[in-house]
Amino acid sequence: MANRNRLIADKENLRQEILDVAREMFVVEGFANVSMRKIAEKIGYSPTTIYLYFKDKADLLHQICEESFAQLARNVLSIQQLSANSLEKLRMGMREYINFGLKHPSHYEIVFILPIQISFEGGYESSQGKIAFQTLRSNVSQCVDDKLLKNNDVELISQTLWAGIHGVTSLLITHCGFPFVEREKLVESVIETLISGIKA
Amino acid sequence: MANRNRLIADKENLRQEILDVAREMFVVEGFANVSMRKIAEKIGYSPTTIYLYFKDKADLLHQICEESFAQLARNVLSIQQLSANSLEKLRMGMREYINFGLKHPSHYEIVFILPIQISFEGGYESSQGKIAFQTLRSNVSQCVDDKLLKNNDVELISQTLWAGIHGVTSLLITHCGFPFVEREKLVESVIETLISGIKA
DNA sequence: TTATTTAATTTAACAGTGTTAAGTTATTTT
DNA sequence: AAAATAACTTAACACTGTTAAATTAAATAA
């Protein structure tokens, strides 16, 4: 009944194709509006085939999250390796985080806004997410070493900054009906307020 | 089949009882895990009765949101009417917002994290939510009048602060598995960083 | 090559979901 | 008491995630 003209020759890649198709659908239609049957139809397999590669719908989401986290982690890591003022790198890293979220709103939604309560029973932990946060923390740590901040509690400052940049990102994504000021202006304001708030 | 020993004598209050029961269930079990049938069973009516009082499940959520928003609006409004330093009142208002969210995590989740994308088709707008934000804005405006801030763009500052306090609240609620520093410490840090960042 | 085992995939079904149209009961009005 | 209106329920539709069992295809062994 389903489309038999499969696009993938190598069946070993079926798992990856499910991931790609599911991500695209989640991004376009939203996690809740995508059923396992719809995914299955799109890849040309029966719904149950997906369960041979993923435990359940939540697991499928997890795997997608990990890939998104990984991309973000790579982006912020590449910034950290630039040769610039440590505070400036911190600023750039924060901006990259926000830009990543605004450029891929549904990815961000899936990773940072929705999933944890959706599928928390299995004790979801993202290794890639930890890497992204650790990069922020090491940026902060460098600033402390350079004596550029008024406080030297690296963990506290890092989490404070994360709260701030997550706040503006998630607000702009989920409250899209609210009459926000110009996007770039608000993002800049949040970053500058936070930096100014922690600077020595 | 359903329980006929109805708790409410006055049938005019059925609508309010549905709201109360649904809120309680949403808070305890989460929006997605509560079905119309479960709500109906708890109030002792058939599932379709709910549709006589609410357009659909999303509408039911909206009404609950409005009530939550109203409570928050009352709380922050009562703070604004205290006779204290305007910057101090701003600080207290921000703290009240965060505390409200952490004290009623599922309410906050329903109102500020989830609903807008869940039921955006009908053009959802919260009047009570606007009042809550307007209170914050007028707090900021008073600070500007008192020349306590380094910038006088009231709208921009208000949205920047909202982003910050929403960030820490939502992060603490949804990423409950993350090893955050002590809650009170983080909340204090976010507020102080933001205030310090906008102060003259 | 054929027989057997293993892997890959599907069929059918369960128990649940939001929602609607039509039917029924109860209450109010005439 | 009869008619009209409101309150509520029954039954059904078209979905959902998920599982157990059956089937088909591929790989291995005789």
Would you give an account of this structure?
2 copies of one chain form a homodimer. In chain A, helix 3 (57-80) packs antiparallel against helix 4 (86-103), helix 4 packs parallel to helix 8 and helix 7 packs across helix 8. Residues 1-9 and 115-123 of chain A have low confidence and may be disordered. The longest helix of chain A has 24 residues, at 57-80. Chain A is elongated and about 60 Å long. The first copy, chain A, contains 9 helices and no strands. Chain A is mainly alpha-helical. Chains A and B meet through helix 5, helix 6, helix 8 and helix 9 of A and helix 5, helix 6, helix 8 and helix 9 of B.
Summarize the structure.
2 copies of one chain form a homodimer. The first copy, chain A, is mostly helical.
Query: Would you tell me the structural class of the helices and strands of chain A?
Result: mainly alpha
Secondary structure tally: strands of chain A:
0
Distance between the termini of chain A: 67 Å
SSE series of chain A: HHHHHHHHH
Tally of alpha and pi helices of chain A: 9
Gross morphology of chain A is elongated
Quaternary state of the chains = homodimer
Rg over C-alpha atoms of chain A, rounded to the nearest angstrom: 20 Å
